[in-house]
Amino acid sequence: MSLSSQQIKRLQAYRQKKFRREDGVFVAETPKVIEMLLDSPLALRMLYALPAYAEAVSRRYPDCRPYLQAVTAKELERISCLTSPQQVFGIWERPHRQLNRADAFQGISLVLDGLQDPGNLGTIIRIADWFGIDRLICSEDTADAFQPKCVQASMGAVAHLPVYYADLARLAADAPHDFPFFGTFLEGENVFEHPLTDTDAWYCIGNESHGIRPATAVLINRKIHIPTFSPASAPHRPHAAESLNAAVATGILCAQIRASGR
Amino acid sequence: MSLSSQQIKRLQAYRQKKFRREDGVFVAETPKVIEMLLDSPLALRMLYALPAYAEAVSRRYPDCRPYLQAVTAKELERISCLTSPQQVFGIWERPHRQLNRADAFQGISLVLDGLQDPGNLGTIIRIADWFGIDRLICSEDTADAFQPKCVQASMGAVAHLPVYYADLARLAADAPHDFPFFGTFLEGENVFEHPLTDTDAWYCIGNESHGIRPATAVLINRKIHIPTFSPASAPHRPHAAESLNAAVATGILCAQIRASGR
């Protein structure tokens, strides 16, 4: 049974947020990511696979059989979001996650302030999942965690890590008194000298180009800093002091949190 | 004075390693990266800029005037490697860096084993520069540090950080007795529990998909590991144990080296 051109159109439309929203779904590709999602509790809607992979996956994951359709390489090419499609394209129900206000201040949250690049967001989700961070809380204008590029960059970790979108200022207004909200600033304290030992805390990651916005910066009550050790950052070479990229800085912060024993 | 079609062809050819090699040059773009390079000791060959930026840059960097040529937006579009060209395109002489065998074992080196993605390599160069790592030593099949995508991802840090290419096994044969060569392996020691305090050491970063190759793994005498804290990595969810990406792992290792006081 081959795909109708109407089906193909609908599947291609899922590259756009509007149509993913309408149907309450997201898409994923490549055997690695697909299998990570099949191992997750998320609800599978459809799996389109080349015949050889369809057979392999139905053997390893018998539960997916009712949702499995074999397609030709040509059909897969048309529906895939990748330059080189890899055997399989899947559709899952997007989980509905509502942030309970009380939960927002339990454990460790990464707070994303206007992050734009879906690849960066996916990498951050993968890092947060790796380090057992409890959740991501994103400003409403942060990239969509369920867009195809982000799902791929997260290697499927979006299935495990709860990602919420919220008005940060409004949410922060409900924080307990002096709840630790960390953010990186040039004048902040050296993270290598101050262990990050808070059991419950927020850590802010800013936009790739503009960093943390002033409206968010005023909410931050713990300023920290990942120092440079570059000989090139001497005062006569001001441009050498480029900051680390958002995902790398996130990795270092999460590692410091865990190295500090939290 | 406008660019001849022959000039444009030559500039476009620099996207290929062969032609960069022939002329001993590399290219860079965007004001941010261009200015980082103008601040470096590397020798500028030519700068092609839109009139407004040409004026601005010649005021701030008078030394570049003899090499500066104003171009039209259309010309810039043709020579640029970027989807959205940004005001300027520059050509520099590629530095000739010869690795002195004695130097190879002084200070901290990152050793790259077959890293393929120029974006990843550039990000790693930026991280290494940030943390004052002494050099990168790359296997001969690692991506070229001076290809355009890598130069951009490094944010110009290629100008500061020495990057060498070598036969790793042959070079390692000259190492002092028991010289510390670290690499990440699942069975390695937890980096958060074992400070990385060696003053002189090599740290190996493997290929994005295949990790450290067996031929390199046999050279490694200190096995370490960045542990996961993910609840999703429980034994019944084997696929959840995806590793961190190469650049993020590098960032965490470099941070641990500096946090350990080296």
Summarize this, please?
2 copies of one chain form a homodimer. Chain A has 262 residues and is α/β, with parallel strands linked by helices.
What does this structure look like?
- Two copies of one chain form a homodimer.
- With 262 residues, chain A is an alpha/beta fold.
- Chain A folds into two domains: 5-93, Ribosomal protein L30/S12 (60s Ribosomal Protein L30, Chain: A, 2-Layer Sandwich), CATH 3.30.1330; 103-259, SPOUT methyltransferase, trefoil knot domain (Alpha/beta knot, 3-Layer(aba) Sandwich), CATH 3.40.1280.
- Chain A is built from ten helices and ten strands.
- Chain A has helices at residues 5-13, 17-23, 31-38, 51-60, 73-79, 118-130, 148-153, 168-172, 214-217, 246-259, and strands spanning 25-29, 44-49, 68-70, 88-93, 108-113, 135-139, 163-166, 181-190, 201-206, 222-225.
- Chain A has a six-stranded parallel β-sheet.
- In chain A, helix 6 (118-130) packs parallel to helix 10 (246-259).
- The first copy, chain A, is elongated and about 60 Å long.
- The model of chain A is unreliable at 235-241 (pLDDT under 50).
- The A-B interface holds A 32, 35-36, 39-40, 123, 126-127, 129-132, 155-157, 160, 192, 226-232, 237-240, 242, 244-245, 247-249, 251-252, 255-256, 258-259 and B 32, 35-36, 39-40, 123, 126-127, 129-132, 155-157, 160, 192, 226-232, 237-240, 242, 244-245, 247-249, 251-252, 255-256, 258-259.
